[in-house]
Design goal:
- The termini are close together.
- The protein has seven helices and seven strands.
- The radius of gyration is 17 Å and the shape is globular.
- Helix 3 packs across helix 4 (131-141).
- The model has no long low-confidence stretch (mean pLDDT 96).
- With 185 residues, it is of the alpha/beta class.
- Strands 1, 2, 3, 4, 5, 6 and 7 form a seven-stranded mixed beta sheet that branches.
- The chain has helices at 10-18, 43-54, 86-96, 131-141, 155-160, 168-172, 176-184; strands spanning 2-5, 23-25, 64-75, 78-80, 100-110, 115-126, 161-165.
- 34% of the residues lie in helices and 27% in strands.
Amino acid sequence: MKLILGSKSPRRSQLLRDAGFEFTLRTREVEENYPPEMKVEEVPVFLAIKKARGMSDFIEDDDQLLLTSDTIVLMDGKIYGKPKDYEDAVKILKELSGRMHLVITGVCLKTKTKEETFSDVTEVYLKELSETEIRFYLDECKPFDKAGAYGIQDWLGLNKVGKLIGSYYNVMGLPTHKVFDALKK
């Protein structure tokens, strides 16, 4: 099978490359909205499916497989997506500071005739963040394209994640161990 990655995320591309996969990168804007009554835990898979269906014309042959994904940060029933701006990122990090949150990544694998989905959940325990640390982090690392306004692989992850239960790579944006198993099938 020829793999097509339908994602603008440089982290997902790097994770797939590092996991030994060869793929073609194709992207298209797909509106990331969902029904308000949907259970929040189901949103990442719903959005991954929506992206796959919005890019399904990229699948030209029976030997091609499209991979799409979506990651959310979830705490107290609230989804934290990508920050709207700098001050929104400050607000998000203040809310996550000193607390445990979930990172859920939904994945959709789609061929011309089949669609398979799955998700992965990781618990992330952030240490307390001072206002100075938050602003330093945002100024230095600029995590404005990341759900929850942070990247596990940069300053915040290196210095302020006290504990992680689950897949580190899921927090980066792709549960590579589950992707590998699904693609092996």
